[in-house]
Amino acid sequence: MDQASDVRTLSLGETSGTVPLARDFTRTALTEWGWLPAATADRRAAAEDVLLVVSELVTNACLHAEGPEQLRVVRYDRTVLLEVTDRGAGQPAPRTPHRAGRPGGHGMFIVQRLCLDWGVRRVPGSPGKTVWAELASPA
Q1: Could you tell me if 84 and 97 are in contact, meaning their C-beta atoms sit under 8 angstroms apart?
Q2: CB 67 within 8 Å of CB 61
């Protein structure tokens, strides 16, 4: 992986409106990096993918992992890394089989489809985990 050129961190903890807060924080970073407003439809779609994945990761932490504690957005030359740290012990995974017509259960399926890679990092002896996702840079 390339050298990180910028790292943004947002503490979430006990805040309300967590998902919109995380999206706005990420949108601000993308704007400051010159990725938004996007000059082309492809760049706009790539930036919207980043915002959608942030929403899905934070929502998943809210619903299944006792709430998110932190969001990190890391810019590299060709990729952006999203990390959501939560307090939950569970293991996120796309629901299989995926049923597109049913409500709910689409978050990690969306993450898997949009990202170059994603995974879970745990610190032995510590509660919770960090779910990370890597996407192609909109730039």
Answers
A1: no
A2: yes
Q: Is 123 left (phi over 0), alpha (psi -120 to 50) or beta?
A: beta
Q: Quick count: other Cβ atoms within 10 Å of Cβ 121?
A: 10
- Residue pair 119/42 in contact (Cβ under 8 Å)? The answer is no
Three-class SS of residue 15? Answer: coil
Series of mean pLDDT values for 10-residue runs along the chain (139 residues): 82 87 97 92 94 94 90 94 91 58 65 92 88 89
What is d(CA 13, CA 120) in angstroms, rounded to the nearest whole number? 19
Q: What's the whole-model pTM score?
A: 0.88
The span from the CA of 29 to the CA of 31, in Å, is 5
